[in-house]
Design goal:
single chain; alpha/beta; two-stranded parallel ribbon; 19% strand
Length: 254
């Protein structure tokens, strides 16, 4: 497929809300054509329609990142439509109920691992393959990590394990991608304010068992961090970046 030399194509998973939506809108503003992926088509299409109204290019594709066939269909659509992929923001993720581990139903563990680990792997694997064979070769994969990739919150074994796994995927792809001009980064996020995290503004369990309100950071700061990494030439990379509320209880004793 012949594509304009100026075409830059990005994929954002979990693009219908929160961090994913903010990142998608920012990449659109920076001139990327953005493929919006997520389970629910309606919010994705809303982002795409808004982009079209602004003279930007976006494509909504309903995708279940835990389903290999669904991921394969997503990337087949990207390749057939645009012929290449320059950037992926692996953002889709879920959490599990915050309960003692012996009270956690196994299905919650499996859901988190399937989405946060296998979903990231499937999308990264497909992106790696397309970036490796396209001309010109190369691209950038950015994984949504978490401060939980370094330090857990109470009662978060599934989520913490999943984000430790994402860190391993990131480092492995950063190594394996060198000879193909494929860079891989991870943005570790702490207390970005979204519809899912707003509950933390009313109090969240601390390491000492108390409940405390925590500071939050505007989601746009996360989007700006992704924009910065995306702006780099493939000869430069930010392997890990932490974007967090300055006063949240992460550094130091909890």
């Amino acid at each position: 497929m012949t594509t304009p030399d100026s075409l830059r194509v990005a994929l954002v998973t979990g693009a219908g809300s929160g961090i994913g939506r903010a990142v998608a809108n920012s990449l659109l503003a920076d001139g990327f054509t953005v493929v919006l992926a997520g389970r629910r088509l309606e919010p994705l299409q809303a982002v795409a329609d808004e982009a079209k109204a602004n003279g930007q290019q976006a494509l909504a594709v309903s995708t279940d990142v835990t389903d290999p066939a669904s991921v394969d269909a997503l990337f087949a659509t990207i390749e057939a439509t645009y012929g290449r992929l320059d950037l992926v923001f692996n953002n889709a993720g879920i959490n599990a109920p915050a309960v003692p581990v012996d009270e956690l139903d196994l299905s919650h563990w499996m859901n988190v691992i399937n989405t946060n680990v296998t979903g990231v792997f499937l999308c990264a694997r497909a992106a790696f393959g397309l970036m490796r064979r396209q001309v010109p070769q190369g691209g950038r994969i950015i994984n949504n990590g978490s401060i939980s990739a370094h330090t857990p919150r109470p009662f978060t074994a599934p989520y913490t394990a999943s984000k430790h796994a994402v860190a391993g995927i990131t480092k492995s792809l950063a190594l394996d991608g060198r000879e193909y001009s494929i860079a891989c980064s991870q943005i570790d996020i702490g207390n970005a304010l979204t519809d899912l995290s707003v509950r933390m503004t009313k109090g969240v369990r601390q390491a000492n068992g108390t409940i405390a309100v925590e500071p939050m950071v505007d989601v746009q700061h996360v989007a700006d961090a992704v924009r910065y990494v995306a702006s780099l030439p493939l000869s430069a990379n930010v392997l890990n970046m932490t974007v967090m509320a300055t006063n949240m209880p992460f550094v130091g004793r909890g």
